[in-house]
Amino acid sequence: MNLEAFVLGSGGMMPLPHRALTSVLLRREGELFLFDGGEGTQVSIRRLNLRWKKITAIFVSHMHADHVTGLPGILMLSSQVDRAEPLYIIGPPRIADYIETNRRTLDMYINYEIVVKEITEPGVVWKGEGFSVRAFPLRHTKTCYGYAMEEEARPGAFHPEKAAELGVPRGPLWSRLQAGEPVAAEDGSMVESGQVMGAARSGRKFSYVTDSLYFPEIAREVANSDLLVCEGMFESALEQSAVEKKHMTAAQAARIARDAGGVRKLALIHYSPRYAERDLKRLLDEARATFPDTILTRDRLNLPIEYID
Question: pTM for the complete prediction?
Fold first, then answer.
């Protein structure tokens, strides 16, 4: 099953000619989920030739302009593509006011249902087929949430040689064993699924953390992430500024990835506009000193999320 992340914007505070504001889109088997929608989100969606009609839900971290100013355009655009399914918007308090005010003030033509859910407490905020999205609290100047998309465990690997040894002929009975059903072997004995299947295998996990003061508990929330997209707004020399503004340094993001355990890749995002493209290597070097499997995100970067086995 295909799972991949697209970085639509990697900047924080203000858009730059080469860097839109923070937004990440997750595609799972053709279904799209958007995390934040800063200014410039529509441009990257268009340039990546993604089908915004397929956006099922939008998850908003917090109510600062650099994370929500791209949403009104997406809402209006979706009315031009014969959308029939509801669009779900999930976020902190005031997100409903923001959406409704924009609809009313801009006199939006909306021909589909918009369902807005304000998060009142951390926990699972979305359940899909075989996966869920969980919100967890961050510490910023406004109520802010991180998100983790977690797939359910997969069945273990099927061992056809064991099925054959037990006298189960190739064909529909093998499929039933893989589905967890017991079947009758050729000699009439019953063969249980567990006799021919390996141990259950984990699903994949994507975590999204941005706009937060560093605190150790974040690591627990993002443990075992195959991909952790995390704010690395400043270099360590500006850590005091990060504390005052309730943001993180790249080194602190790497500390979270290291301490979490099981994180396969850290992708830095939400850079301060003070950093030109050539300056971002300083952030990368500081993060890699703590967590070597770190990369810099760039606008329109595609990050496949593969199964471990």
Answer: 0.90
